[in-house]
From TrEMBL:
<dbReference type="InterPro" id="IPR001466">
    <property type="entry name" value="Beta-lactam-related"/>
</dbReference>
<dbReference type="Pfam" id="PF00144">
    <property type="entry name" value="Beta-lactamase"/>
</dbReference>
<protein>
    <recommendedName>
        <fullName>Beta-lactamase-related domain-containing protein</fullName>
    </recommendedName>
</protein>
<dbReference type="InterPro" id="IPR050789">
    <property type="entry name" value="Diverse_Enzym_Activities"/>
</dbReference>
<feature type="domain" description="Beta-lactamase-related">
    <location>
        <begin position="1"/>
        <end position="145"/>
    </location>
</feature>
<dbReference type="InterPro" id="IPR012338">
    <property type="entry name" value="Beta-lactam/transpept-like"/>
</dbReference>
Amino acid sequence: MTSVGKSITSALVGIAIEKGYISNKNEPIAPYFKKDYAIEKLSTEKEDIQIYHLLTMSAGWDCDDWNENSLGNTMHFPDAPDDFAFTLDLPMIKPNGEYFSYCSGGANLLGEIIRRQSKLSLQDFGDKYLFNPIGVSQNEWFVTPKSTP
């Protein structure tokens, strides 16, 4: 189900761009979070992570759910007081856009960007712009406990 959630989130990003909540896929993500988070080791490479990199799972930070040794593996989320800060603070280990790594933390950040820009929960945004228009009136969302629904 988490993989399906990532696909739905990516569709919602496309809708958010179409509706003007996000300007485009090449927008850097750091400005969405710098006000609320003192992002550790904020380097040029980290500031250059774009929405596109999160959509394609090609951000260069150490985030790989398929590698149990990766600092950003979701098995480490239960120990983190804030899932967003945890992901934003991951160290950079490779160039952005060059390597795929399955990163749930990046997908969570995309959902948070939609929430911040639309002022709707991700579920409400999804219902309003995706599910209700295609006739899906009942759905159930599971949101990580430390992320905003």
